Amino acid sequence: MISFTVNGRPAAVAVPDAKPLLDTLRDDLGLTGAKECCGKGECGSCTVLMDGEPVCACLVFTAQARGVEIITVEGIGGGPEQLDPIQAAFVAEGAAQCGYCTPGFIVAARALLDKNPHPTAAEIRRGLAGNLCRCTGYQKILQAVAKAAEGRAD
Amino acid sequence: MRSIDERRSSDGFQWVGRRVPRLDGPEKVTGRTKYMTDLHFANAAYGRVLRAAHPHAIIRRIEVSRARALPGVICVLTAADIPGLNGFGIIIQDQPVLAREKVRMTGDAVALVAAESEELAEQALALIEVDYEPLPAVTEPLQALAPGAPPVHEGGNLLQRTTLCRGDVARAFAEADAVVEGTFETPRQMHAFIETEGGWARLEPDGSLTIWCPAQAAYRDRLQVARILGWNPNRIRIISSPLGGGFGGKDELTVQHYLALLALHTGGRPVKLHYKREESVVAGIKRHPFRVEAWLGANRDGTITALQARIVVDKGAYASLGPAVLNLAVEHIAGPYKVEHVAVEGLLVYTNNGTNGAFRGFGVPQTCFALESLVEMAAERLGIDPLALRKQNVVRRGEVDGAGHRIESSVAVWECLDAVERSSLWEGRAEWVAAAPAGKLRGYGVACGVHGVGLGKGVPDFANAAVELTAEGRFRLLVAPQEIGQGNGTIYAQMAAEVLGCAPDEIEVVQGDTGQVPDGGTVTASRGTYAGGMATVNAAKKMATLLGQGAPPPLRAEGYFILPQAAGALPGIIGAPHHVCGYAAQAVLLEVDALTGETRVERVVSAIDCGRVINPTGLEGQSEGGVVMGVGFALCEDTLMEGGLHRTRNLTTYILPTTCETPAIETIAVESCEETGPFGAKGIGEVVMVPVVAAIPNAIARATGRVFRLPATPERVWAAMRKEAQQP
Lengths: 154, 728
Ligand code: FES
Ligand code: FES
Description:
The complex is a heterodimer.
Chain A: E1 2-6, E2 9-13, H1 21-28, E3 47-50, E4 53-56, E5 69-71, H2 85-93, H3 102-115, H4 121-127, H5 139-150
Parallel strand pairs in A: 1-5
Antiparallel strand pairs in A: 1-2, 3-4, 3-5
Chain B: H1 4-8, H2 25-29, E1 45-51, E2 57-63, H3 65-69, E3 73-77, E4 102-103, E5 109-115, H4 118-127, E6 129-134, H5 141-144, E7 158-166, H6 169-175, E8 178-185, E9 198-203, E10 209-212, H7 218-229, E11 236-239, H8 256-263, E12 271-274, H9 277-283, E13 290-298, E14 304-316, H10 322-331, E15 341-350, H11 364-382, H12 386-393, H13 413-421, H14 424-427, H15 429-434, E16 440-452, E17 462-469, E18 475-479, H16 488-500, E19 507-511, H17 528-548, E20 555-562, E21 581-593, E22 599-609, H18 616-635, E23 641-642, E24 645-646, E25 664-670, H19 692-703, H20 714-726
Helix pairs in contact in B: 7-8, 11-19, 12-13, 16-17, 18-19
Bound molecules: FE2/S2 (inorganic) cluster (2 copies).
Residues 36-39, 41-46, 56, 58 of chain A line the site of one FE2/S2 (inorganic) cluster.
């Protein structure tokens, strides 16, 4: 058994040590917010927080999560009715199109703003450079994160 | 110029033209949306596909007994297990579902496995023995046409020749004051949707088959799968929405046929396939690489008089939508210009370089790069401002375009160019260029373009939709075009709400499920808003009539729309011309590093003739996404192949623009009410990425030297810079 907490709740899974954490989250824990796109640490669509640090869950072995606190997109905000300010800004700005990359961006942006609540435009760009999006051209994503950082709720 | 939002307020619409937030937004940003590849079923079987070991080879023998004997393997299937047609393809079915005698690309499927786990399925693949007799790989389209070249298919390597001839090019070139020429080559761009191909299938107890799979054409997929199974299509249900991106790459069958075959052999257990990126790269279609050799003639007064071109297209191994791609490329080769003398020959050539097919832009970015480079070269030669030259030559309503088609629908390309000219980017361009820091070279570039909406002349094209009022008093809108990212579900709800007098979020929108929605065609060809929208409006109007008559719920009203076809014809070019087109003009500011040839796009202005804007946020989303996809095409993206093998295998070596490369993009809506469209709207999902692919090389040329091959990598820009420096 490998035990850790996910989104504040204890979890224990009987999976091989080397099973990618991403697969464990998706197949064994039903948390399908994090996505696989490249499986190689190139796209960030699988981003989750481990003890507050953003990681590519496709590159993490489940055994490395032992005793760790994991936050996935499902653990950010209080669901569709009670959005985190970043999520609300994504909706308002139109920063999610197909939405397949969106969970990774939300988690990466949350980590960025937790560390640096008032980033410059260049810091936002750099902070999200590990996440790929093929739909939006990024402009609305950058605007949404800037807006969330400024605490604008409109 | 008034902003999109300012102009809105005077229209008197309640929902059309407003920034209605996407109805699926909250679900998507919280990770709750279930894509087809997120589904999970109990008692699942896991599928895998065995791919060809060679790009071109005869299959002597396939031995599956060892794989079948592996404990945990549920089935191993080869061509012998296909009940119906062993072939697929949207236009001609030249691609085997499972290769029997020959493989023509490394993406060819040779066998299928279903097993108790993905690991076991993987092990089983390794136990399948295939005895190949390798053949020489055909990798250069020009060589593929040479006599004696090994044939990829029995009929030879020329799949299609499309020509367009009007006027007298020889005389026009002889009389032109300036003739410019060049050979332009474009990359094998990858769709790189973030969700790779995948899904589920299950044989139901009543003998029907359900397939869950992100797809752009569920009804057509159903037909293709039915042919392969030898079934009535009505026995198959395909649930295809939402998609995690498509861009044309999920227009052809991806996994539907493999899932269907496997599901027939898993005893009713649901079966899953989900490609890793490496398999997606090898098996999936790409954008057709083009080689365009072209000449453009113009007079001293700025009139563009003649265009001649020879297009050679690397088809890859199978037709898919290639014939239609070539036809659209030929139809639009002269862009939005009134060129009177045109001679074009397009050749679609089979090779063993994987396979290519539909991709946003559908052949037009490739030819736009050639045409708009030549227009820029002509302007320079004649000493005419490039924007003024374009404005002088673009077509207006009632005039005849370069293909010989009289435009009888909305066209505001001149206005798009005018909007670019009056943008702050254009007004400040000289100042910005002059302010280049040491070691940097700066340039600006502009281009314009056109892209047809819908499938075009001679191709049946229609959409149906239904509006229901449930017994509980809820509206449901059933419409076929899938939610692929563009937000069409919200657009449809806005349109229906406008007609029904309710709010968009009071309408439940169901898309892309053949078990629920009437056939409304594909989400391709810039037709989603236009065709799906008109069917929605027509259904909603009927519902409004029923409600006006006091009919009690439950109610159902159906509406349809048959896309209008152009009055004229372009003989020999199926699908051309298009009655309705979207137009755009785009300009960029670009900086080149004088030492390394590295480039950076600083700013883009994107003026789009979209008919009426239904949702400004959605329009900007298309514009911004299209521009950055164009930046990738022009500067960094290419799927490299050598000897028929992929050198690019994943996103590690396929370079996509990131947040760091994306420029500041200003979108200007140039509204030109299209009277055949819903509330005056027309489609722009593709034209948004067309001009930018030429505006960028034009900016590079102004900064340093001209590139004739995209992507304009630092190496190529550096070489162009050296060549320029050596010129006297
Ligand atoms: S799937 Fe983990 S980085 Fe791409
Ligand atoms: S919204 Fe589709 S990939 Fe980002």
